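TASK: fixed-backbone design
INPUT:
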């Protein structure tokens, strides 16, 4: 994993379980009210990463893609709220789903296709971008802190 002066951190994963491990490592740093926006094409690894977050938060239930359910809540060390914005038109749809209720809660909100609804969220939040790498199973995962408080925590997963 590399940290750059520009303020982002990137990792390369070589299979889905490495992406899950990355999520699991980040889970140790999560606090109530955190927002993670997961960005990347279909199959890039967003749900795999969310599964790792869930495991790291001690969620025992199996986490699946919430594409059809839109939002699911899982019980763990902190509640994990897993949302998929793929079918949403934009930020306004999140009010209809009632997502603001989760923002003041104890939970961690993880949004797949987060770039589609970015305007809804005030910093701070962490953007996690998944890109295809060279080779079928290679992914580049780029963490970009937006607002205060995330950079320090990312250094915590550097050692993981
Ligand atoms: P998304 O939620 O972004 O659509 P998923 O995590 O559901 O992505 O799916 C990723 C797919 O790519 C899975 O079939 C997984 O096995 C495969 N895969 C291969 N290499 C990786 C990797 N390095 N990280 C994550 N997934 C990978
Ligand atoms: Mg998904």
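OUTPUT:
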């Amino acid at each position: 994993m590399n940290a750059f002066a520009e303020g982002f951190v990137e990792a390369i994963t070589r299979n889905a379980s490495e992406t899950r491990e990355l999520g699991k490592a980040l889970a140790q740093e999560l606090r109530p009210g955190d927002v993670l926006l997961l960005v990347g094409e279909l199959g890039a690894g967003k749900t795999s990463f969310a599964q790792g977050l869930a495991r790291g938060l001690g969620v025992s239930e199996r986490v699946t893609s919430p594409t059809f359910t839109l939002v699911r809540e899982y019980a763990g060390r902190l509640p994990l709220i897993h949302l998929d914005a793929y079918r949403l038109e934009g930020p306004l749809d999140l009010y209809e789903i009632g997502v603001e209720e989760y923002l003041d809660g104890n939970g961690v909100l993880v949004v797949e296709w987060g770039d589609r609804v970015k305007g809804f969220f005030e910093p701070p939040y962490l953007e996690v971008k998944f890109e295809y790498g060279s080779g079928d199973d290679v992914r580049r995962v780029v963490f970009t802190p937006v607002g205060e408080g995330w950079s320090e925590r990312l250094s915590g997963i550097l050692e993981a």
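COMMENT: Residues 46-47, 65, 112 surround magnesium ion (ligand 2) (CB under 6 Å).
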